[in-house]
Amino acid sequence: MTRTLPVSDAGSTRPNAVPAKAGTSRRGLAEQLPAETLVGWLRDMMLIREFEVRTMQAYQDKKIGGFCHVYIGQEAVAVGCTAAAAPTDPMVTAYRDHGHALARGMDPRHCMAEMFGRIGGCAKGKGGSMHMFDKAHHLYGGHGIVGAQTPLGAGLAFATKYWDEVVNGGRSRSVTLCFLGDGALNQGAFHEAMNLAGLMNLPVIYVVENNGYSMGTAIGRGTTMAHDLSVKAAAYGIEAVVVDGMDVLAVYDGMKPLVDWCREECRPAFVDMRTYRYKGHSMSDPRKYRTRDEEERFESEDPIDRLVGHLERRKALDKESLAELNRDVKQQVRDSVKWAEASPPPPIEELFTDVYVDEWGPYRGTSLPEMLREDAGDAGSGKQ
Amino acid sequence: MANLTLVQAINLALVQEMEKDDRVILLGEDVGLNGGVFRVTEGLHKRFGGNRVVDTPLAESGIIGTSIGLAMNGLRPVPEIQFEGFLGPAYDQLCSHAARMRSRTRSAFTVPLTVRVPVGGGIHAPELHSDSPEAIYAHTPGIKVVMPASPYDAKGLLIASIRDPDPVIFFEPKRIYRAFREDVPEDEYTIPIGKARVVCEGEEMTMVSWGASVVQCMQAIEASNRSIELIDLRTIFPMDIDTVTASVKKTGRVVIVHEAPKTAGFGAEIATRITEECFLHLEAPPQRVTGFDTTMPYYKLELEYMPDAQRIAKAIEETAAY
Fold first, then answer.
1. A30-343, CATH topology level
2. In this complex, is the C-beta atom of B304 within 8 Å of any C-beta atom belonging to chain A?
3. Domain map of chain A by residue range?
4. Residues of A whose CB is below 8 A from B290
5. What is the pTM (predicted TM-score) of this model?
6. Rounded distance, CA B234 to CA B145, Å?
7. Which candidate in B45, B97, B124, B129 is catalytic?
């Protein structure tokens, strides 16, 4: 196993700096794809952007409760990684998960309804913003504890390998994409997961969406060796690459060969995906820890603008078709909001479902359904 | 006197303890420059500097484990865990180490540690951001569990917790962080850990609660036109059972209210102790109004889950009529 990893040439040694020449990847893998494919990526990224803008509005209008972490600025990561993987490759992420859900193909109506706490949501409106699950699209969440999804990623990869090799007697065929933020690099669970993945040669790629901040703490203040995260992977014998996450072409160029390599070799990998979140950690974050200048610098390298520029240069997109795409995604997101609003809240009975396989049994005689049956009018009146 | 919210009262307590005792240091995720996720530590980084208000990496196990080491070596660390659900990664450090260090070393080493943790529901947050795990830690010998229900108590209990020679989990009910203000003395004072507060006296029945639920109880009592004695436990463990039993011996009836799930919730312990110690005084079985035995739901069902004045009123009437 001495094969060298394909390495994206889009790297930089400066933390969170998007390299000057990013986007003009030498590999040019993505550029060779049909223009329609790239227009599809553009549409996905625009959909995520518009979805998140409306999400923020809905949050401000108090239609979305709790905590809400939007993906604006990082769209190229979810879209490019999804494109580089097979649709059946397991994917798991943390709480900034709307982008992954949409990129993977979740119906925006179900995503929006989940945040609205409505029964039509992907988790029946019982999980909220941080808990996007989509079994049909092999999205295993949406998890609220920083880094907690990283051992899950190892387990998902262990499982695909086990099914393929041990049960079916063939070759391992799947690659798990496990996303995490740079803050999660410091959680013990991440290191346990990496060690296991390295030890057992699990086909999992840890994609660190390195947006430079763990909540309000800049990466250099909270993480050692922030300028070269590959050393974290080296400790576990795991190959690492750096990818410019602000350019979907570079994401694909970096991820596609890596995914193929992991699938072929059945080995783990680690990606330092340099990106930036335009908004705060959550909706209640005033972003006092960074300057408007810095934000503008990254916004000027906007991943959507860059893809638009690329397609225009290729004459694969004109003003009119861009405007149409724009209208189209706006309409789709408006519809999802309307649909979410029309979806009813979960009935009170839903308090007691989905905790155990036996929906009512375990509770008999303790709290609940008895009480509901006795006076449904009292407790089940719905106060909200 | 200053008219403060619970957040401001805690902030004031931290300032005064830090000024008085340079062994007191704060650490946690974004507690410094950002002032904490609920802005409880606002201004403290500026005032005391980065050596005493330490922004840590995002790593709860490390935060608590490091705090244990600090405490064992003479400091008085006050780490913040951002939400009660994030205690999960730190559970091993808290329960395997902080809780047992005194016992394990026969008091050669102690852990004077105060873990500040926002707790409970009512702010439209999902699970892991609105749970009530106090019974888990009350069931861990070696840890003290404190939960104030008012700004005045928050200040006095926090100062007492910081000065306490044993590890304390100081749960801050986030629902009432800014819900109301109260006169809080500007001078420092302590409220003893393990001492309940009689919020209002009454003859017909006793009500026991803690944290944000105390406010719900007060509303229910006001609406009931009955003479009900409300006890705010203030410290979950060690529990002030004497105050509770003295009241129940007087009233003969008791309703216990908490947000956590019913089964093996701390209300079960209180009900048992009352039965053991007041059996012949009871006119009615102790009744509990609690959350349900299910995962804390997302916000559309949140208010159905948490005990409210309506459910408490029903328990009052049933208990009175028994």
1. Rossmann fold (3.40.50)
2. yes
3. 30-343
4. 367
5. 0.90
6. 9
7. B129
